[in-house]
Write a structure and sequence with these properties.
alpha/beta; TIM Barrel; 31% helix; elongated
Amino acid sequence: MAVEGLSRPVWAEIDLDALRANTAAIQARLGSSALCAVVKADAYGHGAVPVAEALLEGGAHGLAVAIVDEGVELRQAGITAPILLLSEPPEDVMAAALAAVLTPTLTTLAGVEAASEAARRIGGRIPVHVKVDTGMHRMGVDPAALEEILVAIRSNHQLIIEGLWTHLAVADEGGEESRAFTQLQLDRFDEAVEIAARLGITPAVLHVANSAGALSTPNARYTMVRCGLALYGEIPTADVAEAAAAEGPLRLTPAITIKAAVSAVRRVPAGERPSYGRRRALAAESTIATVPIGYADGFPRALFTAGQEVLIRGQRYPLAGNVTMDQIVVDVGDAEIAVGDEVVVLGAQGDERIAVSEWAEHLGTIPYEVLCGIGPRVPRRAVGKPPAPSAPSARRWWRPGSSQ
């Protein structure tokens, strides 16, 4: 098991109030569409359990995870809301998924058979969602095989087709070609809904949109959307931000701030080259501050080459040399910096902010990867109003009437 770095001054503050406010703001934008809060990958690096509780308190109708273990963790913490598995569970863990009151996604006949057998052993009526591949070509039922899958599920009376869904491939991109492909996916999904209807199957929950689709493509909202990144206060791309603004202001607050404390300071002569590789000579005599966070914690080495800065006493300062596994060195010039001073490597301090998007741009990647890369040695500390205790029993169904 990975060890948290409780013995050193590095931590991530997770603003539960920001998460609640973001959820409420997004739900207001969605209107009557239900909100599924995606908390896979440890809630995008924020900490799954407290984040899930805060998002539900903010108005999310349920949660989504990628793997069974993530759902079980939430159940063991006492979370009672519906939890959707975004991929079909392996056959040998299907029973564990249903026992934990997780809603499986089904995409294959083998998965349907495994779910049927597990449902027979557990008893009761078990809701399932079916994912259709409309162009992402990663997971999902080929539209040509959809009727066969739906009929197979319907033949087992303990399985109820509660949801039908797909995933958008380029909703976060602007441009005519991307918008046209998103619309093509929506058209294909509508055709899938029609196939189900011809069989007398009318799923209560239809969902297509991720954060990008929910904010940029109103006709992709259907009866539910699956939001991840936006709930954490980040808009996927500038194109999505522009499209969202067309519907009116949407204020989202980043929920994570990564902090540390200066662990050492030293005065270093001009011409010296701090850190591994001696990559850069100091232009003048400077104070070098050591900060105990490194690439093992999710602060990538490439940030030095890219010119990334950190915040100390509300001012930006550049790195003085290569990022190491456990530490960075910061060139603070002639500033009066002391051991113990707070350092913000991601987030706000004073009037300055280092945004997730800034890291992503410097690294040539996306905000998702930045957040998910924050390592387990960085303890997550919840700030804001603590979550209320959960009710004692889990709920299977996403919407009233879904089990009918």
